[in-house]
Design brief:
Layout lengths: L8 E4 L5 E2 L2 E2 L1 H13 L4 E3 L7 H10 L8 E6 L8 H15 L4 E9 L4 H6 L2 H10 L3 E8 L3 H10 L5 E5 L12 H10 L4 E4 L12 H10 L5 H10 L4 E6 L4 H11 L7 H15 L11 H5 L6 H14 L2 H11 L16 H5 L6 H13 L2
Parallel strand pairs: 1-4, 1-10, 4-5, 5-6, 6-7, 7-8, 8-9, 9-10
Antiparallel strand pairs: 2-3
Length: 372
């Protein structure tokens, strides 16, 4: 299988540590060193992850032999690209920013909905194969947050695809909006190895609701809550690696502690996770992962993800003052507009990989947090 020598933990570079409003390169270097020393080698960035490609050039590419790691990046042709040339230029920018010379894994990013059309219209499937033939890409695939039906259609249309990257976690395994299990099964049916993204659901499963936390902690008091999410994903057959968007040294150290010698989940552990899934499904949280693709297309610069985090705080803890404080910190202090300034254009919902009813939920934020 492709990637069979790659260990089951990948370093996702979407949420790197920050200091004074910029990526903390020195901490990233320490995290990279720990990761590499433990024998892990897969790094995942993207043109759309602001500053990430430049950061990994400094922390990894300039400090380690090129053949000692795998570097993946992505093309998001649906972000502000009016021509094929503009879409292709993302690849050149990624090469320049990473200094990598070539990419081990290159992905057409976030297919599904109206986004797939950009890759089709710009003939990017053939273009990727040309880059592969030129030695600039070793393995070509795509990431997808869409429905099982769309995933099936894309794989049927493009059998040359070598792998797929899917959102899989125990919260979304049977979630009707995400359908992780069904998407995974389709990839398996097409014999496509899977790279797993969002195993901790944007950090939500590192600090899950208390009923879920109680179940997991009772089973293994010594294990972190995040470890359950990573292990659930790594336990699936046909997986190349599981990406964890680590944001500090502590998260890196925790992940390495239980993934260095990963063992398949026992029947008892799988039963514990099933209980956690049941408890989680009964809590009506907004399934936002803070990817902020919605923010990239919002004409009003609404603080969408911050507003949803605040509303989830209200749902979880019933503390309006604390939730309003979160909205102030994550929206107003970031120079973003509040939920009540939404003009309901719907562009955000077209970009949202979680298929969230954003306009409806922003109205909920307005009514529950912004009105006296």
């Amino acid at each position: 299988m492709l990637g069979e020598n790659i260990k089951k933990l990948g370093f996702g570079l979407m949420r790197l540590p920050q200091q004074n409003g910029a990526i903390d390169i020195e901490q990233v270097k320490q995290m990279v060193d720990l990761f590499m020393q433990a024998g892990f080698t897969y790094f995942d960035t993207a043109w759309a992850y602001a500053g990430s490609e430049d950061a990994i050039r400094q922390a990894l590419v300039e400090r380690y032999p090129r053949d000692s790691f795998q570097l993946a990046t992505k093309n998001a042709a649906w972000i502000d690209c009016q021509t094929a040339a503009e879409a292709y230029s993302q690849f050149d920018a990624s090469l320049r920013q990473t200094g990598a010379g070539y990419f081990d894994f290159y992905l057409l990013h976030n297919l599904g909905g109206g986004r797939t059309k950009y890759f089709d219209d710009y003939a990017m499937w053939d273009w990727v194969q040309e880059k592969k033939a030129a030695g600039l890409i070793k393995h070509a695939g795509f990431s997808c947050h869409s429905t099982p039906e769309e995933l099936e259609a894309i794989l049927q249309a493009h059998p040359e695809t070598e792998f797929v990257q899917l959102q899989i976690n125990y919260a979304d395994w049977e979630n009707p909006a995400v359908q992780s299990r069904r998407c995974y099964e389709i990839a398996q049916a097409h014999n496509k190895p899977v790279i797993i993204m969002e195993p901790v659901k944007g950090g939500m499963l590192a600090t899950p609701p208390q009923p879920v936390a109680d179940i997991l902690q009772a089973a293994e008091p010594e294990s972190s809550l995040a470890s359950w999410a990573i292990r659930f994903a790594a336990n699936l057959p046909g997986v190349i690696t599981v990406l964890s968007g680590m944001s500090n040294l502590a998260q890196m150290q925790d992940n390495l502690a239980y993934m260095q010698n990963f063992q398949a989940l026992t029947a008892s552990q799988q039963e514990t996770l099933q209980k956690a899934q049941t408890a989680l499904s009964q809590i009506p949280l907004i399934p936002c992962t803070n990817c902020n693709y919605c923010a990239k297309v919002c004409p009003m610069q609404i603080g969408i993800s911050g507003s949803f985090t605040a509303l989830n705080y209200l749902t979880l803890y019933g503390d309006k003052e604390m939730a309003a404080g979160q909205a102030e910190w994550l929206v107003s202090r970031q120079g973003l507009k509040p939920a009540n300034e939404c003009i309901k254009c719907g562009k955000c919902e077209e970009a949202c990989p979680q298929h969230i009813a954003i306009r409806e939920n922003l109205l909920d934020v307005t009514q529950k947090l912004l009105k006296n």
